[in-house]
Design brief:
It contains 24 helices and 21 strands. By secondary structure, the protein is α/β, with parallel strands linked by helices. The strands form 6 sheets. A 7-stranded mixed sheet has the order 14-13-6-7-9-8-17. The two termini are about 65 Å apart. The C terminus is likely disordered. This is Nucleoside phosphatase family-domain-containing protein.
């Protein structure tokens, strides 16, 4: 039994792709070693910082050149994964590439071409488990991304494994999840009992399975706001500025530090530069953060009609959030924008709206000259460069608006929180230190593990591999909030496919890997071609073929029955295949001079340059093929004439007869001797032309012909 199971996920985002490697104990082994408490928890997933790698840009940039996505992008990521997964586990390791907002905006045909090339490249260059392209390589909806993130956050916080220790009141023990990227933002949470009943049709039913095989079910609300990520929001903001003053060459921007000039694309314009002048308008920073907050508020689009009450923003329905029991963690931009500059010395401190806004206003009111000096001296850490400092004021204002005016998170430090928490004092104090009992807390890692939606995907996959305690239990996955499994139910990764075994069995690249039902049809097709070829080869050749098959299985003609038995399959097994063989061929010995057996060529066609041992499949080709000297080969000539020619040459060398004599004899009788040893023809030992063993074989064969 293999101890570890591995999984690889490529997070194909809008700005780049990151590879994540995870591992967990074999489900049967984990169950046998688990304590009573562990049996009630989900499989324990492990990862390591060294197991991740990110490259830029995203795969969406290959929309017009999909053939380049493999060698120019994926190769680096797959090579990194292969360095950290044991060689013999690679064929057992599922590979997923799940793309998000960046790929969603590509035209359908370009998106399809890029995804197909991703799958083809991975199958050709690696041995990862990739049985279903549509399932393993896809663009996932924002709702799916949010659900995976919700799973990851609750898994790391312990909301699944220890409900009693995370009781937030009203029987609620899970945490909400917020994610914001460059193009979209997501929210996922389990509403309180009242809201869950009222909006049951809007919820997603999630099924997991513990190490002990028991089912876990949760009803989660998930939605996504496309265009509400920080980069898309900034783009909408700049477009609004340009529309407000279409003829202006300079546009004051309160979301930029004073004295900073940038193009409408956000590129810094150095002082004294006239590059954008006369071509396009550019933005000039004024450093007024309160005004920036006011101008970014309309981007929430709260004025849009709400067709299904209640709505938070953009006219999208969201059940009412009970912040007494719903405590949210925010990742990605929620973390970077609140911590990279403003919380350097307070990374474990809970989010405090009042304190945060004061720090943002203090930073954004500085001149760009002073900020640039601070960046050069690593005042805010070595990760903060000029681009980060340039963008952070707009990002901070957008984040504050999204959290408090959009989603409705209470302003901790200004607004009083009502309600209490039904838990022990020790648990409350511990949670407060981490900030997880506050309405919102930005996080990057929990327990040293990054909170990533990719982790949630792998938790779901590992959970699906656990054997259920009952045959009546439903599959792991998620879908509509109804009993049973509907057509929209999403399985984590299909059925686990163990590696067949042989290192030469390229299971993922076989003709039948996509559809095993092709096998019978293919076999029938081969048989039809064989029968047609057999019927067209002529009477004499058919008779000769039948005799060969008969001799192979020890059922030759009566004249050579005993010899045939010795040369049959048992003879091959016990080394009796070197006995001379006589075969009748068609007349026309003159064609012997038109053939020459070419030398054996072995071309190494290994097109896999990966440095990881055994990670790629090498190919070799090359067959010993007859070549014509000149002219067209006459009908009836076979490759056996090469052997006859070689035999006659040996005869002349031994002084037995002139070459012409034997040629005439063959022409008169129309017979030809096949004299090469079976070792030579079947790839066994090869004797040199002048070796004693070969001379003895030639003399023996010639003697039998003369007799």
């Amino acid at each position: 039994m293999r101890k570890w199971r591995y999984g690889v996920i490529l997070d194909a985002g809008s700005s780049g792709t990151r590879v994540h490697i995870y591992r967990w104990l074999n489900s049967d082994l984990a169950r046998g070693q688990a304590s009573k408490a562990q049996l009630q928890g989900l499989p324990e997933i492990e990862t390591d910082k060294k197991w991740t790698k990110k490259i830029h840009p995203g795969i969406s940039t290959f929309g017009e050149t999909p053939n380049d996505v493999g060698p120019d992008h994926l190769d680096k990521l797959l090579s990194h994964a292969l360095k950290h997964i044991p060689l013999d586990e690679v064929p057992n390791t599922p590979l997923f590439l799940l793309a998000t907002a960046g790929m969603r905006i590509l035209p359908p045909l370009q998106r399809k071409a890029v995804l197909q090339e991703v799958c083809d490249f991975a199958r050709k260059t690696t041995r990862f488990q990739l049985p279903d392209c549509d399932l393993h390589v896809q663009v996932i909806p924002g709702e799916t991304e949010g659900l995976y993130g919700w799973i990851a956050a609750n898994y790391l916080l312990g909301g699944f494994d220890s409900p009693a220790e995370h009781d937030h009141g009203k029987g609620h023990h899970t945490y909400g999840f917020l994610d914001m990227g460059g193009a979209s933002a997501q929210i996922a949470f389990a509403p309180n009992t009242t809201e869950a009943e009222k909006h049951a049709n809007d919820l997603t039913l999630l099924r997991l399975r513990t190490v002990g095989g028991d089912p876990l079910e949760y009803k989660v609300f998930v939605t996504t706001w496309l265009g509400f990520g920080v980069n898309q929001a900034r783009q909408r903001y700049v477009e609004a500025l340009l529309d407000s003053s279409p003829d202006a060459k300079e546009l004051p921007d309160p979301c930029l530090p004073s004295g900073l000039r940038v193009t409408k694309e956000g590129k810094h314009v150095a002082p004294g530069s006239d590059k954008p002048e006369g071509h396009a308008a550019y933005l000039v920073g004024t450093g007024k953060f309160s005004e920036c907050m006011h101008q970014t508020y309309p981007l929430l689009e709260k004025e849009k009609e709400c067709l299904d009450e209640p709505c938070l923003l953009n006219g999208q329905h969201v059940p009412a959030i009970d912040f007494d029991v719903n405590h949210f963690v925010g990742v990605s931009e929620y973390w970077h924008t609140t911590h990279e500059i403003f919380e350097m010395a307070h990374k474990d401190k809970a989010y405090d709206f009042k304190t945060y806004q004061q720090r943002v206003e203090e930073f954004c009111s500085q001149s760009w000259e002073d900020i640039a000096k601070g960046v050069s001296k690593d005042k805010w850490g070595h990760k903060v460069d000029a681009t980060t400092a340039l963008e952070v004021c707009f990002k901070a204002s957008w984040l504050i608006n999204m959290l408090h005016d959009g989603i409705g998170v209470p302003r901790v430090g200004i607004e009083d929180l009502k309600g209490g928490h039904n838990a022990t004092k020790a648990i409350i104090n511990s949670a407060k230190e981490k900030g997880f009992l506050d309405p919102f807390q930005a996080v990057n890692k929990i327990g040293g593990v990054e909170v990533s939606w990719t982790l949630g995907k792998m938790i779901l996959y590992a959970s699906s591999e656990v054997s259920p305690t009952s045959t009546e239990e439903l599959a792991v996955g998620f879908g509509s909030n109804v009993p049973g499994i509907l057509d929209d139910f999403k399985y984590p990764g299909g059925v686990h496919l163990p590696y067949p075994g042989s290192s030469d069995d390229d299971w993922h690249d076989r003709l039948f890997s996509e559809n095993p039902r092709r096998i019978p049809g293919f076999i029938i097709f081969v048989l039809i071609i064989f029968v047609i070829g057999f019927m067209l080869c002529g009477r004499e050749r058919r008779r000769s073929a039948v005799k060969k098959v008969g001799r192979m299985f020890g059922r030759g003609g009566s004249k050579h029955r005993s010899l045939g038995r010795r040369r049959g399959l048992p003879g091959k097994l016990f080394g009796l295949s070197n006995m001379p063989s006589y075969e009748r061929v068609l007349e026309g010995g003159e064609a012997v001079n038109d053939f020459e057996l070419g030398s054996f060529v072995s071309d190494s066609d290994n097109d896999n340059s990966d440095s990881s041992e055994g990670s790629r499949v090498g190919r070799t080709s090359g067959w010993a093929t007859p070549q014509t000297k000149a002219g067209t080969v006459e009908s009836g000539a076979t490759a056996y004439f090469d052997s006859g020619r070689d035999l006659l040459a040996q005869g002349v060398g031994l002084g037995l007869a002139p070459l012409g004599g034997f040629s005439n004899a063959i022409e008169r009788g129309g017979l030809m001797a096949r004299t090469d040893s079976r070792e030579r023809l079947s790839g066994g030992w090869k004797s040199r032309t002048s070796s004693p063993s070969r001379l003895r074989t030639g003399m023996s064969s010639l003697k039998e012909i003369v007799d």
